[in-house]
Specification:
This is DNA polymerase eta. InterPro entries: DNA/RNA_pol_sf, DNA_pol_Y-fam_lit_finger_sf, DNA_pol_Y-fam_little_finger, DNA_polymerase_eta, Rev_trsase/Diguanyl_cyclase, UmuC. It catalyses: DNA(n) + a 2'-deoxyribonucleoside 5'-triphosphate = DNA(n+1) + diphosphate. The chain is of the alpha+beta class. The protein has 26 helices and 17 strands. The strands form five sheets. It has a six-stranded mixed β-sheet. A four-stranded antiparallel β-sheet has the order 12-15-13-14. Strands 3-2-4 form a three-stranded mixed β-sheet. The longest helix is centred in the middle third of the chain and has 26 residues, at about 330-355. The structure holds a DNA duplex (12 and 9 nucleotides).
DNA sequence: ACGGCTACTACA
DNA sequence: TTGTAGTAG
């Protein structure tokens, strides 16, 4: 449900930029011979020529519509060129469009706050830029005005068609105009400029709306397409909205809009004006009621959020009708592909944007197989996200099992895994709760994060530990590196349960110690501690440097590191120390024990049944960390450090150096050891 | 149950 | 916090 937000100002300059049939343009750039021809992008081709997801304007003029099948489009427009969406791992892969969208965002974000609203839509807050222009080079002072500005559509301008251009020119340059209009005029200049830049640098055309808020800008961007822009002056708002069918408004295209029509007889936005705020609140709740009252008047306080990156990554597929998945084996096959794609995208996000995702969620829809399940929805399930394809797969499978168990629980009969009882028609996996890695971690992060895929031993709970690719906590009180790049350890505790109880007391000690001895830290650990989110009182800031850490190659260390290093170097072009860390390649298929091992726990905030029928605790705060990959620190040839970029050489040397720890008895067996000890609860 | 895939927000 | 529902392109 939409919610009302106070309006910070009624003279902001907000733009909504909408790419024209974006997927088509992306394909036309790739294949220029398609330009000018009726073209559509279609995904999958098996059934009736696949479904259209983007249609060029040439094709639209033939009556081709989105959501037609490919065959249908061909019959309406025989010369249409159908371009298939790329397929990877047996499913549609939209990454080329996502990446193209990023190109556009990079340009549009130059002039003000930029919010990526979808793969092909962006909101801009150009208030500051417009005010600057108005004070420095107001439109009335300009001698030449770009044609792209003159071609703007300005709502409410009355002129004969032959005079429109002149009327727009005058509106833009009026020296006695309302300040709000002048700001919008400046916005029109800025947006025209941006759109030209986008065209020049990406070859993509776009349309835009320029108004005083997001809602109006969005409305306007769709009014004149393709490759045009539309301005909504303040005085035109009323006449724009009054006759507008209610369902044209964003957020009112679905059930809410339907309810307004059916229950209140509201067919246009103007019709809404007759209802008091109280009445609307009565019917739709405080928030939505106020929101409705506001939008009827063109009031919308939504801020343009500064966000150019997505808040989540997802991948999934539908399996309609007889294609539904009926066995765990089939589920696993697909989850495996999804895990791969997700891990890949997360990896790119980490590398490019220094962000990590914290939550893995599995969504599914199920076929109704029995009456008892017919109404029941397959529940979605989440758990902490661990990086690496195999870990994601392992967790996803557990989430699925948990969901399935719940889904089937109501049915009178107990269904086995066979081909009985259920069929999955939609399955997807997503990664969310993405947070930035604090700056300063990046230098070293780059060199270690890539170990994820290769680092997937499931004997992890019994191993000594040093690195963890990425794991997470729900507490948010520890640093990223603490969770991911663990210090060498001095001890290995096998009993996670005991450790947990010990931890509580040790944490406080550790916290005090940290404050006292912060300067004794190595560079490496200093970086670690600098990463920490601001320390709250009583929240431990952990720090520990293992003196005699044993770092071993979890793969067994049979090959010399030089061999392994060379092999990887050629393949990946990375420095050898990194390869050393990467080459443990302790790639193992998940073993059942890894799940069956799980002990029952009573304190978990979220428990899912494990395959063995035990309970697997998912959110355990600080105890999330596991470590899989182990190295012998003295196996690292100090010379390879020279191959690292200078900015991290010191960090690594300090870390490799035997620690001088005069007064460090507390460190041995200190809380970090417990903190990162094997945790059988997870 | 053939409009597939993705992603966001609000809410309980 | 996790999970659901609604919305949109």
């Amino acid at each position: 449900m939409p919610v009302a937000r106070p309006e910070s100002s009624d003279s902001r300059v907000i733009a909504h930029v909408d790419m024209d049939c974006f997927y088509v343009q992306v394909e036309q750039r790739k294949q220029p011979e398609l330009r000018g021809h009726p073209t559509a992008v279609v995904q999958y081709n098996a059934w009736k020529g696949g479904g259209l997801i983007a249609v060029s304007y040439e094709a639209r003029s033939f009556g081709v519509k989105r959501s037609m099948r490919g065959d249908e489009a061909k019959s309406v427009c025989p010369e249409i060129q159908l371009v298939r969406v790329p397929v990877a791992r047996g499913k549609a892969d939209l990454s080329i469009y996502r990446n193209a969208g990023s190109e556009v965002v990079a340009i549009l974000s130059r002039k003000g706050r930029c919010e990526r609203a979808s793969i092909d839509e962006v909101y801009l807050d150009l208030t500051d830029a417009a005010e600057k222009m108005l004070s420095e080079t107001p439109p009335e002072s300009l001698e030449v005005i770009d044609d792209e500005v003159i071609k703007s559509h300005v709502l409410g301008i009355s002129a004969e068609p032959s005079d429109v251009r002149q009327a727009v020119r005058e509106w833009i340059c009026r020296s006695n105009a309302d300040r709000r209009d002048k700001l919008l005029a400046c916005g029109a200049f800025i947006v025209a400029e941006l759109r030209m830049q986008v065209l020049k640098e990406t070859q993509f055309s776009c349309s835009a709306g320029i108004a005083h808020n997001k809602m109006l800008a969005k409305l306007a961007s769709g009014m004149n397409k393709p490759a045009q822009q539309t301005v909504v002056p303040f005085v035109s708002i009323k006449s724009l909205l009054e006759p507008l069918p209610i369902r044209k408004m964003k957020q009112l295209g679905g059930k809410l809009g339907c309810s307004l029509q059916d229950d209140l007889g509201v067919n246009t936005v103007g019709d809404l004006l007759q209802f008091s705020e109280g009445r609307l609140q009565e019917r739709y709740g405080i928030n939505t009621g106020t929101w409705l009252w506001n939008i009827a008047r063109g009031i919308n306080g939504d801020e343009v959020e500064s966000r150019v990156l997505p808040k989540s990554h997802g991948t999934g597929k539908t399996f309609p009708g007889l294609n539904c998945l009926k066995t765990i084996a089939a589920i696993e096959r697909w989850l495996s592909k999804f895990s791969e794609e997700l891990a890949e995208r997360l990896e790119v996000d980490l590398e490019q944007n220094k962000r990590i995702a914290q939550t893995l969620t599995l969504h599914a829809s199920a076929h109704k197989a029995t009456e008892s399940q017919s109404q029941k929805k397959f529940p979605s399930k989440s758990c902490p996200l661990r990086y690496g394809t195999t870990k994601i797969l392992e967790d996803a499978l557990n989430l699925f099992q948990a969901g399935l168990r719940e889904y089937l629980s109501s049915s009178s009969k107990a269904y086995g895994n066979g081909c009985s009882g259920w069929g999955i028609t939609n399955l997807s996996l997503s990664a969310s709760k993405i947070v930035d890695i604090p700056s300063g971690t990046c230098s070293i992060m780059k060199y270690f994060h890539t170990q994820d895929q290769s680092c997937s031993s499931t004997k992890e709970f019994n191993d000594k530990e040093i690195f963890e690719a990425a794991t997470l906590s729900t507490s948010g009180s520890e640093s990223y590196l603490m969770k991911h790049l663990q210090e060498p350890q001095t001890e290995c505790h096998e009993d996670g349960t005991k450790m947990n109880t010990l931890m509580q007391t040790h944490l406080e000690d550790e916290s005090r110690m940290f404050e006292d001895k912060a300067c004794a830290q190595t560079n490496f650990s200093r970086e670690i501690s600098s990463l920490s989110t601001p320390v709250k009182k009583n929240e431990p800031q952990l720090d520990s440097v293992g003196e005699d850490a044993v770092i071993k190659d979890a793969a067994g260390g049979n090959r010399s590191r030089d061999q392994k290093g060379k092999a990887l170097k050629e393949k990946q072009g990375t420095s050898s120390i990194l390869q050393f860390f990467q080459t443990k390649n302790c790639f193992q298929e998940p073993k059942e024990e890894s799940v069956n091992d799980m002990q029952e726990t009573t304190e978990s905030s979220c428990s899912v049944p494990s395959e063995s029928g035990g309970i697997r605790s998912l959110h355990r705060g600080a105890d999330q960390s596991r470590v899989d990959c182990i190295y012998k620190i003295d196996e690292i040839d100090p010379n390879v450090v020279d191959e690292l970029p200078r900015e991290i050489q010191e960090e690594v040397r300090a870390w490799l150096r035997p620690q001088k720890r005069a007064n460090n008895t507390m460190r041995r067996g200190s809380s970090i050891t417990h903190y990162f000890s094997p945790n059988k609860n997870l």
